[in-house]
Each structure stands twice: as structure tokens, then as C-alpha cells.
Amino acid sequence: MVLLYNLGIFLYSCAIRIAALFNEKAKLMIAGRKNWQAQLQLKIDSNARYLWFHCASLGEFEQGRPVIEETKNQFPGYKIILTFFSPSGYEIRKNYEGADVVCYLPMDTKQHARTFLNIVKPEKVFFVKYEFWYNFITELKSRQIPLYIISAIFRENQQFFKNTPWGKWYRKILFSFEHFFIQNEKSGELLSSIGIKNFTISGDTRFDRVASIASGAKKFDIVDKFKGNSTVVIAGSTWKPDEELLIEFINNLNDTNSVKFIIAPHEVSASNINRIHQMLKKPAISFSKIQNADIQNYQVLIIDSIGILSSLYQYGNLAYIGGGFGVGIHNILEAATFALPILFGPNYKRFKEAVELTEKKGAFPIKNYNELKDALNLLLNDKNKIKKASETSKIYVEKNVGSTKLITKKVFNT
């Protein structure tokens, strides 16, 4: 099985090199790992003590970030090395100030694992949510370096829980972890079913992250002026299918004074922003052009900048989160932490928080325009329903914060 695994890694590496000829993401993966050993040796302080955090991509980084920052604050004697597998994480967070070294994780070969660990010599290692690289995990175990996984979530269809030759072999690497910090009871039941007991149900560290974002949210006086006394629906991280439904609702809205919309599309290119403007029949303006505008006369504000959406939710009364008509919804917790009722498309069931908020009536999934129209009209026309759903979102977030402190307390025996 080890030979098959290593052959798979080799073939995967070859496939990426071929894809790099015409795919930008694959090209970044190859370029980012070029001469990684020499680059890493230049960055590492051989006299320092390191904690290593690994994230697959940007979403996992947001889960790991609260633990990184709490650890940095509590134990300043350590330096932090942060690795990413994907360019979508590394390219955005390569200058992250919370880490002393940020780099790509080398491909998972036995030699790469040995070389990486010889250079870094981490005292503790944290993998975030998933990423089960056999050679790195095996080498950490052989060196008796404690390995933790945080905000992990397990599902029945994962190979670890299948009684196939591959599944039985692959599950063995789980026994190399010092401790599992898992999100829910179901994950604990699955781990128990294969004889693993060293876990703590600590929840999702993203709740700590969004709570931190909310407490430090940036103020926008011009957006407050745009809102005025209106009810504001904030559509965050939307894609074309989301926008088509929302804009149909906006264009058919009769009362143009009491409800306003902020649309923050996932894609902020000039062509996409222009497409949204052309679809709208109501007065709309882009965020980049509002400084000298009579902003209160517009019904729709289109966000053509990145990095401000999480702060904009403070001005909303309702939120629509995009992605649900594609591979899956974007982060709903940033809206929930501001006590907003949340709507999203049908592809949400892989996201624990979306399922739970739906069950609690703080979130409302929709499948088509008619369901969107009915849900929005129901909430917009009944202030008590908005208030009740808002309180549900607020309580849900408040009950789930605290995972970060639980993790650091157990790992460092504080």
C-alpha cells in the first residue's frame, strides 16, 4: 500500500507539471515549490523553537488563525511556521504577520518529509480540519513530535471508515495523532468506531475568528448614510446564479424606499461589476464611486472592492450568502455573528453551521426564484420574524465561541 500511495503522489506531481503549461493555479503550485529546500533554510532561524501549522487552503487558514494568534500571544517564545498546500491559500496569506515563516508544503514524499523536518525541527505540529499526508505524518510519529488536528470533522464516506484494504491501511495514520480536536459528536462516534479515543469535541474555531472580526469591524459612515432608515439586505460572495435571482427580486420590488441592497459579488472584475449594473433597473452605484455621490438616492450599492465584506454585515438586517447554486455556500458565520437572518442556495448540506441554523430557523435555504421571493417577503414584511431569526443567529454564535482557548489549554497544559 505504501508503494501505491507513493506512486499516486508521483503521478499527481507529474499531472500538476503538465497542467502548469496551461493552468495558472498549477503553475503557481510548481513555481512556489521551486528550490523549496534552499528557500526554507534561508527563512528558518536555527536557534528558534518552532510550532508548525498546516492549512490546505484559505478556508482552513481562517479556522487555524485563531489558534495561531492565541498561541503567539500566550507563548511568544515560539516562532510560527505556516504552510499551505494550495495557491489559493498561500498567495493571499503569504505576508500574514501572525507567522514568522509562510511557505508551501512540499509534495508528500518520504525524502521531502525528512528534509523539511530536519530544517524546521518543530516542537508541536497542528494540521487544520483535514490533510492526511502519509509520509509527513509517519515521519512526525517516528520522531515523537506531537501532531494535533484542529476543527476536524469526519464523515462516514471517508476511507478511514471503510473496511476495504485501502481503508484499513489508510486509517492507521490516524493513530499517529496526539489528539483530535473535532467539531461534532458524529465525528467522535466515527473515531470511536475504529478504536480512537483521544479526541475532544471542541467545536469550530471559525466562531472565535468571526467573533474577533465583529469586535474589530471597520466603520463606514458613507454606508451608514446609504442605509438611512431602510431595511438592508446584504448579498455576500454572490455568483451569477445568485445575482440573477436577487436582481429579479430587486427589479420587481415596488417599495423602493424601505428596502435597500448591498451586493458584494465573489468576482469583482470590471466586466462582472458592469454586468450587474446592466441587469439592474433600480438606481445603483459602485462602492468605489460613492464618495461624491448623493448616496441616499440609490437603492443598490455594489461592492467592487475586496476585504471589507465582513465589516459591511454590521449594516445589514438580512443576509444572502452566495455559492449555493454552485459547489457550496460561502462563509455564513460572518453574517451570523452580526445577528442576521441568512438565506442561501440549495447546496449547503456539507456545512454544519448552515444545517444547524436552518434547523433552528435562523437560516432559510432556497431552491429557485419563487422560494427566494417568498422568503424575503416573509421576513421583510414581518419585523417580528426578522427579530426572532436574528436572535437565533446571535445565540448560535455566542454558544459556539471558546474553541480556541479549549485547544490551547489542553495542548499546552495551561
CATH architecture of the largest domain: 3-Layer(aba) Sandwich
Number of helices: 19
Shape, principal axes of CA atoms: globular
Strand residues, percent: 15-25%
Helix content: 40-55%
Count the E strands.
14
CATH topology of the largest domain: Rossmann fold
End-to-end C-alpha gap: 40 Å
State Rg: 23 Å
Q: Give the biggest sheet.
A: 7 strands, parallel
Supply the CATH class of the largest domain. Alpha Beta
List low-confidence stretches: none
Tally the structural domains. 2
Question: What's the name of the CATH homologous superfamily of the largest domain?
Answer: 3-Deoxy-D-manno-octulosonic-acid transferase, N-terminal domain
Strand order of the largest sheet: 3-2-1-4-5-6-7
Secondary structure category: alpha/beta
Estimate the mean pLDDT confidence.
93
Catalytic activity: lipid IVA (E. coli) + CMP-3-deoxy-beta-D-manno-octulosonate = alpha-Kdo-(2->6)-lipid IVA (E. coli) + CMP + H(+)
EC number: 2.4.99.12
Family: Belongs to the glycosyltransferase group 1 family.
Keywords: Cell membrane, Lipopolysaccharide biosynthesis, Membrane, Transferase
